[in-house]
TrEMBL record:
This is Pyrroline-5-carboxylate reductase. It comes from Micromonospora radicis. It is found in: Cytoplasm. InterPro entries: 6-PGluconate_DH-like_C_sf, NAD(P)-bd_dom_sf, P5C_Rdtase_cat_N, P5CR-like_CS, P5CR_dimer, Pyrroline-COOH_reductase. Residues 163-267 form the Pyrroline-5-carboxylate reductase dimerisation domain.
Amino acid sequence: MSTGVHTVAVIGAGKIGELMLSGLLRSGWPADRLLATARRPARAEELATRYGVRVVDNPTAVDEADVLAVSVKPQDAAALLDEIGPKVPTGKLVISLCAGLPSSFFSRRLPEGTPVVRVMTNTPALVDQAMTAISAGAHATGEHLALAEEMFKPLGATIRVPESQQDAVTALSGSGPAYFYLLVEAMTDAGILLGLPRQVAHDLIVQTAIGSAVMLRDSGEHPVKLREAVTSPAGTTISAVRELENHGVRAALLAALEAARDRARELAAQAE
Ligand SMILES: NC(=O)c1ccc[n+]([C@@H]2O[C@H](COP(=O)([O-])OP(=O)(O)OC[C@H]3O[C@@H](n4cnc5c(N)ncnc54)[C@H](OP(=O)(O)O)[C@@H]3O)[C@@H](O)[C@H]2O)c1
């Protein structure tokens, strides 16, 4: 690939595509090096107004961009690739943000030799706290992975994983924010049950979640150690922990993540 700032086209700029566009702009990526495509004219208008980027049709994006970041739903990917696949000049980097779809799904529909990188990011990209896992697909070199990292690093943390781990990543960190939101929602309800006003319960648990997350990240301690520090003998926390174990919360999480991983596989099968 050529050096210098690459032109990136976000193909199918919905929720995740928009996160990527806004993150790249926040990181200083020049707006004139960003393109977006959308299916509905109203959406195209919205993106152009909000971000000052050019919203073009898919063939124009393929012609003009060096990097094509595909962020359509998995079930729309085959139709999109039927449209643009044969027109992608060899050497352009295709980055897939689609859950479940293996890079081979793209390679089979792109000219031989097209480098493909598979990426799984998550919605905290909106506040530059994403977790993005990056994998090399066919023909992707270290340079292509480094370029993908350059694009996603400003949105949070990045990690390289073998592509065989991407469905697990999807289940864990791709969907992960939803599990934490569900927990916060349930704990807020619990606070209300115990007589706290909703807003107070919400503020208490949100700050507790932030504090716990920063401790997990910055203390270097194992989560068990951190939990033990809050769990005194015959104290209040252990009574709560016993209830969590009685209700199978740990087993529920294991099963939930397996279900998410299986759904990623199913989406890939349905997309074929
Ligand atoms: N949401 C998440 O938390 C998350 C996390 C990680 C990964 N992902 C992955 O990110 C991808 C996008 O998810 P999303 O939640 O952002 O979905 P989304 O909001 O529906 O965005 C997809 C966008 O692509 C547009 N589109 C579909 N076909 C098109 C085509 N042929 N040409 C141009 N635009 C087209 C859609 O248009 P319409 O508006 O007309 O439908 C929509 O705006 C999915 O593959 C998902 O697996 C999502």
